[in-house]
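hi! just following up on the protien thing from before. the input was this:
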Amino acid sequence: MHRYLNRLASAKYLIHRLTRYVFMAGMGWVLLLMLLTTCDAATRYLFSSPVPGANELSKFMLAIFGMLGMAYTQHEGGNIRVTLLTDALPHRLKAVFGLISNFLSLGIVGLIVWGAWKMGVEEFHMGITSDALKIPLYPLKFILSAGAFFLCLEILVDLAESAGAIWLKKKKWESGNSYPEGVR
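and the predicted 3d structure came back as:
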């Protein structure tokens, strides 16, 4: 059992690291968005000539940031959860409800991964582009698929924590960043 817990903790640690790197890539897009917005505002004010296509690029960059930040939000517990009823339940019953909700979430987000990938492939073959700048739209679908895939990985971690809380009768896996010895 100890070997199983160490492997699970190692997988959890790896998934959290990957999630953090994806989030950092999203933050890089935010920095680029800030630079673009600053340049657009400065050139609009100083020279009465905005950066061409800045509005369209800003929308794309903001969408990319949102897509790459989904998994990190799940990891940090930032997604909305209504716990009014579950807070009063015993620990194991709360874990059962967590297992069910994580399983359903995994199915829904898995459909998003598949659907976004499929749409990206179709848009790649059809050559669909944006209106003003003629930027291909298929990379956005692939980024959405990748972001949702990393969200699936984080939901799998939560699923394992819920299962562990049910069968191991411990709160060990709910403590966020606690890993068994030798994992880091």
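Residues 2-174 form one domain.
The CA atoms of residues 93 and 166 lie 8 Å apart.
cheers
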